[in-house]
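Interim report to the steering committee. The following record documents the input for Iron-containing alcohol dehydrogenase (333 residues).
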Amino acid sequence: MAYGRNLVAELPAILNRPYLVVTMADLWPRFAPQLSDGLAAVHLVDSLEIEDLERLPGTLPRFETIVGLGGGMAIDVAKYLAWRLNRPLFQVPTSMSVNAPFAHRAAVRDQGVLKYVGWHVPEMVYVDYDVIRSAPEHINRSSVGDIVCYYTAHWDWRMARDTGNCEAKWPYEQYWVDQARAVLDGVLDAAEDIRAVNDAGIRALMGALRWGGAAFSNTGWNPRPIEGSEHTFFYATEHLTKKPFLHGQIVSLGVLLMSFLQGNDPDFIKGALDRIGVAYQPQDMGLTWEEVRAGLRHMPEYHKMAGNLWYTAATHLPITEAYLDEVQAWIGG
């Protein structure tokens, strides 16, 4: 990972040409003038469905290198194409919304169900302070969701161990819990800088996301140290509503919903999110409370449907009407 300024303009000088840029329609006009020299084509991402992604190679001209430019969707599609076509990959996140630039597998969808596929390590992840800071503050702050999720994930892992529901290939390991907790504590200690989205805050949060992105691989494909029931809520709600979400934002909401369900000192983690200024209310992400309630009820069914998730509070604890009323009053009050 490299930190700096004016990094996008330097890319044409280092990339093998011609190169493909994978980005979003709203971002490309801003960066096009800096990436015109040596450009083979631009793919503007509009789908994460595997069926759609598999058609892409046949529509593209020859290129030697791929640049992922944007948030999670662009980053993951660039990663997918780099894996399928065996091309060098350079990732340029335009916000701090997710750990995807540092993760080695692509988060895609198979008929609406999330799957992590492939394997590709980028040549470099370029973090440009000015590019990151130009994104809306609520997007940058939201990425703490991909770190505070360790809080609920560790409760889930301990519960699975204590109830005899731990997967044989993922036995409880205190070492990885301690490693992840140290990363979480580092982010909470940097709350003021992250809220301000200053250089120190960008380094603190992107450094934490870098650890989390590589952790899935480093733990032997064990997601338990970094992901739990809060992500199940996200996946179930996305599947049910068919709405796109800012990853860290809805995961932050999931952390609150699940920590309350777990009885896991939810006020502590809510206070942390408030200090950082995370916009976690359902209306902040285009959700109604009825949709949140439906997503929570949908978790056990989605867990069965997906077939690739692990035992967490999402399936262990009942979603009662009393819980739904209480958690809505607590978060929305």
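The mean pLDDT is 96. The committee is asked to note this result when reviewing the revised timeline.
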